[in-house]
Design brief:
- This protein has 337 residues and is of the alpha/beta class.
- The protein has one domain: 3-Layer(aba) Sandwich (Rossmann fold), CATH 3.40.50.
- The strands form four sheets. An eight-stranded mixed sheet has the order 7-4-1-8-11-12-13-14, sandwiched between helices. A two-stranded antiparallel ribbon has the order 2-3. A two-stranded antiparallel ribbon has the order 5-6.
- The two termini are 39 Å apart.
- The chain binds ligand PAZ.
- Ligand PAZ binds next to helix 3 and strand 11.
- This is DFP-domain-containing protein.
Length: 337
């Protein structure tokens, strides 16, 4: 049932009227196994959401709306969380960047450019493929971390495409993770559409041209942070992201989200500067006043080089800050898990 404004879905009316993705049960079975393993190992877990969501315009989808997100923030952060000892559930838009393989994305650093074809010692032998010597040290470093993450079972990947897939998956995954209580950090970096077309309004077949302009009236995607905090995973440490293009809106919108949803942190970022500066907006710990909200900027020099000689990534510092805040919060609220 929709609320009195038919274009305004509550989370409840959304899930009562929009169908789940066909792979949901299978995905959740995998998550359940992952959660049981991490519980046994006593690991902290982070759910990283990453990449953009699509909004289909037809049931037999030819056209859809999309957004800019490549999944860099999520994929990069997932690597730093693994390094910090977290098990990572990486929920990402299909074909967006992934931890480790992101270093060799097809457009910026094509994988085939790493390889050489070696002539055989004996003419009748097959050709050999080798890695270009100058590329070996970096590839070895990335490959070692990749293999370790997979062999240890500390990285589990889920995919979504549409905003509907995302919402169903987020709810089901949060409910599964909630058994781990305070040991779970939710890092919601995906760029999720604010508007969608409900299944009931979708044209079954490809929208035909020839009748002049196309007018589409979209409904608002329900605000899911509230039920996430109150019902799906009440003990989780929830970090959401807020993207704006007007810098004057960033902090007011982030503060409003903290006040409205009551989760732990909003990380605000501007589209154009997001790789070099973000702002952490959160309630002041220990303050009795729920409106006591502080902002702290985290900035890096765009030309900085990290300890390994690579360009510095702001996600390294974002993750370090969150790891320390998460632990302080666990200590303050429960004396440890
Ligand atoms: O994926 P990316 O690295 O290109 O961009 C990251 C980001 C800007 C999508 C992320 O930092 C973010 O702000 N996500 C939330 C966006 C929003 O719904 O407001």
């Amino acid at each position: 049932m929709a609320t009195s404004d038919p274009s305004q879905f509550s989370a409840e009316s959304y899930f009562a009227t929009q169908p789940p993705p066909s792979t949901l049960e299978q995905d959740i079975a995998g998550v359940r196994t992952f959660v049981a393993q991490q519980r046994e190992l006593g690991k902290k877990v982070v759910l990283v959401t990453s990449g953009g969501t699509t909004v289909p315009l037809e049931l037999n989808v030819v056209r859809f709306l999309d957004n800019f997100s490549a999944g860099t923030r999520g994929a990069t952060s997932a690597e730093y969380f693994l390094k910090a000892g977290y098990a990572v559930l990486f929920m990402h838009r299909q074909f967006s960047l992934q931890p480790f393989s992101r270093h060799y994305s097809h457009s910026t650093n094509p994988f085939l450019d790493l390889l050489e074809i070696e002539p055989p010692a004996v003419a009748t032998d097959p050709l050999n493929i080798t890695v270009t010597p100058s590329k070996r040290p970096e590839l070895l470093e990335v490959l070692t971390s990749y293999k370790e993450a997979h062999q240890s079972g500390l990285l589990h990947t889920l995919t979504f495409v549409t905003v509907n897939d995302y919402l169903w998956l987020l709810r089901a995954v949060s409910q599964e993770l909630s058994v781990l209580g305070r040991g779970v950090l939710y890092y919601l970096a995906a760029a999720v559409s604010d508007f969608f077309l409900p299944r009931q309004k979708l044209s079954e077949h490809k929208i035909q041209s020839g009748k002049g302009s196309l007018l589409i009236e979209m409904d608002q995607v329900p605000k899911i942070l509230k039920p996430m905090v109150d019902e799906w995973t009440p003990d989780g440490y929830i970090v959401s992201f807020k993207l704006e293009t007007d810098p004057a809106l960033l902090i007011p919108k982030a503060r409003a989200a903290i006040e409205r949803y009551g989760h732990q942190i909003v990380i605000g970022n501007d589209l154009h500067t997001r790789k070099y500066e973000v702002v952490f907006v959160s309630r002041v710990p220990g303050s009795p006043d729920v409106h006591d909200i502080s902002n702290s900027w985290l900035r890096i020099d765009p030309h900085a080089i990290d300890d390994r000689g690579h360009p510095k990534e702001i996600e390294e510092d974002i993750v370090a800050e969150l790891v320390s805040r998460h632990q302080a919060w666990i200590d303050a609220t429960s004396g440890g898990t």
